[in-house]
Predict the 3D structure of the following.
Amino acid sequence: MSFTDNGIILDARAHGETHAVVNIFTEHHGRRAALVYGGQGKRMRPVLQPGNEVKVDWKGRGEDSLGHFTLEMERARAGEAMGDRLSLAGLSAACALALATLPEREAHQRAYAAMAVLLDNLDDLDLWPALMARWELGLLAELGFGLTLDRCAATGARDDLVYVSPRSACAVSAAAGEPYKDKLLPLPGFLRNASSAASMRDAFEALRMTGFFIETRILHLSDRELPEARLRLAALLEAHLERE
């Protein structure tokens, strides 16, 4: 069996003395792990960096076999992000989160397209943190844990929605949430309106919220926490805000 697809490298680990097992988020075939012959060699190491976009040829004896990849570099995103600490942290966090949450061999084309847009904009600090929050929100929906952000969980109102309930994953209006605001999560307006601008503070609050639900709705099902790379990104963004 075989297929050809586009993909984003998520990680690579050594296998034997010269090969590597590589996880790739493919556009039409989902997250896949397979062997790359010579993956530890000088020619392939630069290709197998997280975030790089590659052309993927997979071959295996059957659909359930590990199989092997033949890869061709399409875009060296890892190299592009190396010059900026925050950009590299964003790239690492996105790849680690995709690896931790996406079921193997289950196609999620919308999540793939949104991740590609995120990675393509890592050179714009005014833009990509908000893109990442939107990608994580979409990831929750793709995996069956979408948030209800268009109406108040308590009153049904559709205006002045400024909180999210950590229990129901639904929006809460300012009035209804006032008595419980210390227990609610902030809801930045740009997550409800695609045309709304987002400040760095808005994006940071949005990532706190999406990270909470990814951890409690998805990762805790298998007794896991947010990946270290995602936690490190949040800490770097918070430190950046404190310096502003």
